[in-house]
């Protein structure tokens, strides 16, 4: 044998096989990680419930009266949540207002009908509508400038902003104009009645 072959044989004899995986330790780490994730999820759920308990002074949501008149506008899209008016991060979760869902909005002369499949429907009487605007974000949802229709309404002694996004965002401007004109007409009617 040549010296090179002897040296290669010696090196091959010194090499050891790779360490076998310690399955017990690996399983313990995976179980520990799953327990940690479950604990964080549980904490988030408790926080959601706590926020709802803090907001339990909010009255029950009104439902649409029977026989609504013909609609002015209608849209389908997404409901992104409600917040305290002017505070786009102060999410309201009481009575299901914090649940994101699909939405069918209908604006009539008597108010705004919000139908949410899989979540609580509600109705905002025209006298409670305070205005509408285009915005870019509400409670954890940020879109491009003007990508969100935000409707401000009064419920109990609280002003609420509710965020909607139409499947056809070009409709938002017509909604802002219609709701703001209703608010102006309601204010004029109310002022005339007080005189």
Protein traits:
single chain; 195 residues; eight-stranded antiparallel sheet; 3 helices; 34% helix; 30% strand
Task: Write a brief structural summary.
The protein is an alpha+beta fold and 195 residues long. It is built from three helices and ten strands; from the N terminus they run H-H-E-E-E-E-E-E-E-E-E-E-H. The longest helix has 32 residues.
Taking the alpha carbons of the first and last residues, their distance comes to 119 Å
In the predicted model, the low-confidence regions spanning at least 5 consecutive residues are 186-195
What overall form do the CA principal axes indicate? Answer: elongated
Number of E strands: 10
Q: DSSP strand (E) fraction?
A: 25-35%
Helix content: 25-40%
């Amino acid at each position: 044998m040549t010296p090179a072959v002897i040296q290669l044989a010696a090196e091959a004899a010194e090499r050891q096989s790779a360490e076998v995986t310690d399955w017990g330790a690996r399983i313990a780490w995976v179980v520990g990680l799953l327990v940690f994730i479950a604990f964080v999820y549980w904490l988030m759920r408790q926080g959601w419930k706590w926020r709802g308990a803090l907001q339990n002074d909010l009255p029950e949501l009104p439902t649409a009266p029977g026989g609504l008149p013909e609609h002015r506008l209608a849209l389908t899209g997404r409901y992104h949540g409600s917040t305290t008016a002017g505070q786009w991060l102060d999410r309201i979760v009481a009575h299901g207002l914090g649940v994101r869902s699909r939405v069918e909005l209908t604006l009539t002369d008597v108010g705004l009908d919000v139908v949410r499949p899989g979540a609580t429907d509600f109705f905002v009487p025209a006298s409670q509508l305070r205005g509408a605007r285009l915005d870019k974000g509400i409670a954890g949802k940020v879109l491009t400038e003007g990508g969100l229709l935000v409707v401000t309404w009064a419920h109990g002694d609280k002003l609420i902003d509710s965020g909607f996004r139409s499947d056809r965002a070009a409709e938002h401007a017509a909604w802002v104009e219609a709701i703001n004109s209703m608010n102006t007409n309601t204010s004029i009617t109310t002022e005339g009645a007080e005189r």
